[in-house]
Write a structure and sequence with these properties.
Layout (H helix, E strand, L loop, with lengths): L1 H8 L1 H7 L14 H12 L9 H7 L3 H16 L4 H23 L3 E3 L10 E4 L5 E10 L6 H5 L3 H4 L5 H11 L6 E8 L4 E7 H23 L1
Parallel strand pairs: 3-4
Antiparallel strand pairs: 1-2, 2-3, 4-5
C-alpha cells in the first residue's frame, strides 16, 4: 500500500524528530488492524449512514482496548499542545510528503508559500517548470476524542479540520492561480490512517453550506 511506502520513506526523519517526544504506541506504524480500520471506516463507509464507533467495535475486536488507550493518551496531550512546536511539526510532514511525491512522480515538488504565507503549502512542477498543481497539507495526529459529545460526530471522522480564516483568505488567492489546488489531510490516528484529499471547489462549497446553516440558525434565534 502507498501509505506504507510513505511511512517507510520518512521513518528515519520522524524517529529523529520525535526522539525526545512521547507519541502514541502505533503512531507512524501500519499493520493489518489499520488496514481493516481503513476499509470499514473509510472505503466501505457510507456518508449517509456513517458507522458508529460502537458498531465498529463489534467488527474490529482490537478497537475496544485501543479506544481506551487513545482517550487516556490524547485527552491530556491536547492540554500540552504548543502552537510553535505544532508549526514545526507540520513542516516536517510537508517536507516528508514533498520528498515522497517527488520520488513517486519523478518531478519536482517544492514549497509554494515562501513569498506569500497565504499561498498553498506546496506545488508540483511539470518537466518544463510550470505548475501542475498546488496542495495544502494538514497533519492530523490527535483525534478529537470528545467529538461525539461536543459536535455530534464520531471521533474518527469528525476530527480533521482546516483553519477557517486561512482558507477564506486562501480561496481568494486561488482564483488567480492557473493550476488546481488540493487540500491534503495526512491522518495518523491510532485507528484510521492514510492520506486523503479534497479539491478547493469542494472546500469552497462546504464553507458556503456552513455559512447558510449558521445564517438559518441565527435567524431562528433572532426571531
Amino acid at each position: 500500500m502507498l501509505y506504507q511506502e510513505l511511512l517507510d520513506s520518512c521513518k528515519e526523519r520522524f524517529e529523529d524528530f520525535f526522539q525526545n517526544v512521547q507519541i502514541f504506541s502505533n503512531q507512524f506504524k501500519w499493520n493489518e488492524y489499520n488496514a481493516e480500520c481503513y476499509r470499514l471506516m473509510y472505503s466501505e463507509n457510507r456518508e449517509d449512514n456513517i458507522a458508529s464507533v460502537k458498531e465498529l467495535k463489534t467488527q474490529i475486536p482490537e478497537l475496544k482496548d485501543l479506544c481506551k488507550q487513545c482517550s487516556s493518551f490524547f485527552i491530556p496531550a491536547r492540554n500540552r499542545s504548543l502552537p510553535r512546536y505544532d508549526v514545526i511539526m507540520g513542516q516536517q510532514h510537508e517536507e516528508a510528503l514533498m520528498e515522497f511525491l517527488s520520488h513517486k512522480l519523478t518531478t519536482q515538488v517544492l514549497r509554494a508559500d515562501e513569498e506569500d504565507r497565504h499561498m498553498p503549502d506546496c506545488k508540483v512542477l511539470r518537466p518544463d517548470g510550470t505548475v501542475a498543481a498546488y496542495f495544502e497539507v494538514k497533519f492530523h495526529g490527535a483525534p478529537f476524542v470528545c467529538a461525539l459529545q461536543k459536535t455530534g460526530r464520531y471521533c474518527y471522522e469528525g476530527s480533521a479540520t482546516l483553519d477557517y480564516k486561512k482558507i477564506e483568505n486562501q480561496l481568494e488567492i486561488i482564483k488567480t492561480l492557473d493550476a488546481p489546488v488540493f487540500y491534503v489531510h495526512w491522518i495518523e490516528y491510532p485507528c484510521l490512517k492514510g492520506v486523503f484529499y479534497e479539491t478547493s471547489d469542494q472546500v469552497k462549497k462546504y464553507i458556503a453550506e456552513q455559512h447558510e446553516t449558521f445564517d438559518r440558525k441565527n435567524a431562528r434565534v433572532m426571531k
